[in-house]
Amino acid sequence: MLMKSFLNVPGDYEKTLKYRQRFALAFLALGLVGEVCYHLLVPQSGLPEFAQGFYQGAAAGILMGALILLVRTRYLLRHPEARKKAQVKEQDEREVTIINNSFRLAGHVTFFGSAGALFIVLPLNMGAFFALLAAMAVYAVTFAVGNAYYEKKL
Amino acid sequence: MKNRITELRKARGWTQGELADRVGVTRQTIISLESGRYNASLLLAHKLAACFDAAIEDVFLFEEDASC
Fold it and tell me: Which of A94, A79, A91 minimizes the C-alpha distance to A10?
């Protein structure tokens, strides 16, 4: 759902699907690179077990996600009836409103939750503190840039 | 904002699914509109009014004073 909302060509669903297909192929390649690296490089790297697991999980996740997106997109491109249903479901304004509201809620919870977590993390781990602070800074800068962009656009 | 979608739809003998297909939304959106949980955008309001061959203000009833 998150990916779908980003990979969108307004007003042309077929173009959107073709765009998604290319994106899925690129991600498939990325996942394959991750898997190859995991099998060839990670065993000799001396990385801790947790990091190795994360590496494999991320590569496999990207690969599977890309495969599912690719199969689904190709199916929709070849079946006009299913494509029409998917388009209505995806571009339905209530659905879009629900997704946008969910994004907003997730953003608020993440930002204010992170602000609260800073107080807990600071005495425990400085690395985690700065990582959290950086994530909040990225959020704030993205908000400011987005605000300036939409002020001009709308 | 109240609306007369249920009344106008039933007068034409359409199901919620048929109306949804006509205006290009999901059946769930029609259900939400009819129950008053969701307010249509101007574009959807226009499509619905055109579908019922009525003016927007005949389909959607503004509760607040909309005069300028």
Answer: A91
pLDDT digit string, tens, across residues B9-60: 999 999 999 999 999 999 999 999 999 999 999 999 999 999 999 999 999 9
Q: Kindly list the residues of chain A whose beta carbon comes within 8 Å of any beta carbon in chain B.
A: 88-89, 91-95, 97
Size of interface A-B (CB pairs under 8 A): 25
ipTM rounded to 2 decimals: 0.86
Q: How far is A124 from chain B (nearest CA, A)?
A: 46
Spell out the domain ranges in chain A: 1-91, 92-154
